[in-house]
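Form 7-S
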Amino acid sequence: MTVDDFISDLSALGEELSDPQQILTEIGTGITEEMKRLAPVDTGALRNSIGYIINGNQITFDMLYYGMFQNYGVKGTEDSRGLPVPFGLLPPRVGNTYSFRKRRFGLRNQTFFNYDTIIDTIAEGLGEQITDF
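Output:
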């Protein structure tokens, strides 16, 4: 490799990195495909809503609002004393007395993305582009 070849490659790398939309598009497509593959599916609305937006040199991932609840889960409901939140009009009746059972309402996590993995994937994708020159 001559000095002129090196300068040409370096210039091409600078141009590629100054407009990273193609690189970010490839990375974003790969990440969203993996998220869609792992997303929990009931109606398919969440899976179908997963996408990305590129704005300049930034990439933002987007999905329906409840995707975060699905991914991280939601703790069950209790009042401030740790008593169950009433369910229905009357508590369940056992014999001649009412029995209060502790009921927890929540949503277990169904992980389909990991923030750190997304960051690592973006860094690796950009690193590969730099080392390919």
